[in-house]
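hi! just following up on the protien thing from before. the input was this:
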Amino acid sequence: MTEPNQNREDLLDSFRSAMRHVAATVYAVTTGHGGDRFGILATAVSSLSFDPPSLLVCVNRTASLHAPLATADTFCVNVLGLGNRDVAEHFMKDRALDRFAVGAWEEAYGVPVLATAQSSIICRRVHCHDFGTHSIFIGELIAATHREDATPLTYYDRQYIDISQAPGRGCAQG
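and the predicted 3d structure came back as:
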């Protein structure tokens, strides 16, 4: 691979293009603060450790969830399934809308939890680290639920895809 001498804008465009072609599960990250509910869609979520069980969530500092999450004690990572596409599309609409008007939302540990999510992982916020335009929130598990019959909602190249229908899915025969 040659090392092209790219200017900053070209480098950012190349990075955005590369990241658009990484399939990612879609998450609705939620919290409660001051009697209000907050949430955003995210793809930058990852398990961190099994001992203690924890995960990390990367949130842009300009996102509506950032300030409430920075002061909240708990948050929930709702792993969206194919059946939650309506929730994802509603979350992407204008911030002025009630993001929780679509979907079967319940409350647990003071945070909104999507009852029909593939999985819901409730965490206690234990650390926050700023990097670039984002903050990395680390949460330690306090509760989790999972539905065996759900396929994750996946985002790839600016659209939702159904990975259960992907060609070549399954084990190769030898």
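The chain has one domain: 23-152.
Helices lie at 8-20, 66-71, 85-91.
cheers
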